[in-house]
Amino acid sequence: xxxxxGTSQFPISKDIDSNKAHIVEQMHYAGKMNxxxxxxxxxxxxxxxxxxxxxxEGYDWELLQRSTLEIMDIAKSLQLWTLLGSAHRLSGTNKPxxxxxxxxxxxxxxxxxxxxxxxGDDTESTGDLAHYSPGEHFTTFSVNGFICGVQICHDCRxxxxxxxxxxxxxxxxxxxxxxxxxxxxxxAQMEAQVGExxxxxxxxxxxxxITMPATMISYAVNNHLWISCSNTSKEExxxxxxxxxxxxxxxxxxxxxxTGVLITEINSEVQYYDSSAYWRQRAMExxxxxxxxxxxxxxxxxxxx
Length: 305
Description:
- This protein is an alpha/beta fold.
- 27% of the residues lie in helices and 22% in strands.
- It has a single domain (2-300), classed as Carbon-nitrogen hydrolase (Nitrilase/N-carbamoyl-D-aminoacid amidohydrolase, 4-Layer Sandwich), CATH 3.60.110.
- A hairpin with a 5-residue loop joins strand 10 (242-244) and strand 11.
């Protein structure tokens, strides 16, 4: 089995028409590159409330819906699976979901993933929670025989989510980020959190640049999964979009702050090193050791040499 993936990055903004133009252009490029699927960043069509715009006050939901339908038609014409980051409007005064629409190669909306862990605190008036309602379900689907799952940005802070996807047989995870659009002032604040003394011994100068890619690498290797990480390229972007192999090796990476699509072909016949293959399932079932336990008094007496 083979699956060719396009991992997107572009400068997401509050302008739905501008976002749509980038999305459509990249869909056509992915089609020319014979991609089976294109993976867009978090809020790629809608813009990201709290970052790209202050709030959803006065938001043009009708334009967003029309634009989504146009993208679905293009997905059908290109026979291209499309994972589209957007806001999903709810009823009344309920805050929308921060979502990924799963659009098939027939242009059909077959499912939707809603960000489970929206950033913020228990007042629900800060971070994502000031603008979005959290979701309550996992989303999996199959493309070319590969079982796929999705996650969004802050979800990466919760390893339990990746373990659950692994339990569900997922082989490829599409993780959409919106880690960018930093002002010079915000970048300086984030660099101060790390400390100039530590720049030379780390992979970046801000916490997202250091911790997010490292976290994704650990999820890939510990769960033996392919992971596509899309991101906004709006300056200043925290990191470039990238693709990880199941052994944790970076298979490809975009250039930070640049618009583009990273193309990756996955071949199920290619095997990658997996040091925990024998015992992972046992650990997931709550049996926390490898091999066979021994019955020995010197084993159970732990406070003596």
